[in-house]
């Protein structure tokens, strides 16, 4: 994952869509809509924050769909 508006991603929509939490929710929605069960999240550079937040969101509550592994490449602290 890469943060929207950085790397190869174009910025679309409004500023609220650029928050780390909302970016994590996009990933969470994608995992759920694809019905992924045994998957790995990979985040590169600033995308490590998106992968970390998404992993946290996916691991909460009943019916959690935890990733098998989270790979962070070029970690950026939050």
Give the total of beta strands: 2
Uncertain regions: pLDDT < 50 for 5+ in a row?
Answer: none
Mean pLDDT: 81
Query: Can you write the helix and strand succession as a string?
Result: HEHE
From the spread of the alpha carbons, the general shape counts as: globular
End-to-end distance: 16 Å
The proportion of residues in beta strands is 5-15%
Number of helices: 2
Largest sheet: 2 strands, parallel
Backbone CA Rg: 12 Å
Output the strand order for the largest sheet: 1-2
Give the fraction of residues assigned to helices.
25-40%
In short:
The chain is α+β, with helices and mostly antiparallel strands. It has helices at residues 20-34, 47-58, and strands spanning 40-44, 69-73.
Describe the structure.
The protein is of the alpha+beta class. Helix 2 links the parallel strand 1 (40-44) and strand 2. Helix 1 packs across helix 2. The longest helix has 15 residues, at 20-34. The chain has a two-stranded parallel sheet. The model has no long low-confidence stretch (mean pLDDT 81). Helix content is 35%, strand content 13%.
